[in-house]
Specification:
Helices cover about 5% and strands about 45% of the residues. It contains one helix and eight strands. Strands 1, 2, 3, 4, 5, 6, 7 and 8 form an eight-stranded mixed sheet that branches. Strand 7 (about 85-95) and strand 8 (about 100-115) form a beta hairpin. The chain is mainly beta and about 120 residues long. About 15% of the residues are buried. It has one domain (about 5-115): Immunoglobulins (Immunoglobulin-like), CATH 2.60.40.
């Protein structure tokens, strides 16, 4: 597989931030996402578990598309602390098979900043 990749970004509280992940197989062709369930997990540290340490942001595979759409919505961002750096993983899991498996598509860091407002 041609993943995982790394992507770091800045998130401004109360904004919506989205990006797409286009996984490729070892030959460089689009990875078949049929039957996979995506997850976009933001944590205070790699390997952190538990509701208090994680934010589940939106991850979907739009119908007929070959990418995972990842979105940090304002409600997700409200759970993040400004001035803090977070780590995240975007994973896909194949269920309904004898041996479920998970691929990590992309990982990275998120720097959180207060909402940007204009002067009046």
């Amino acid at each position: 597989m041609a993943f995982p990749g790394t992507y770091n970004f800045n998130y401004y509280k109360a904004d919506t931030y989205e990006f797409r992940v286009y996984p490729k197989d070892s030959s460089g062709a689009s990875f078949d996402l049929t039957g996979f369930t995506p997850a976009f997990t933001i944590s205070t540290s790699r390997g952190a578990t538990g509701v208090s340490n994680q934010v589940q942001a939106l991850a979907t595979v739009p119908a007929g598309q070959d990418y995972v759409l990842c979105v940090v919505r304002p409600a997700d961002g409200a759970q993040l602390t400004s001035g803090t750096s977070y780590v995240y993983d975007v994973e896909i899991t194949k269920s309904g098979v004898s041996y479920p498996f998970t691929y990590t598509l992309i990982t990275g860091n998120i720097s959180v900043t207060d909402q940007v407002t204009g002067a009046v």
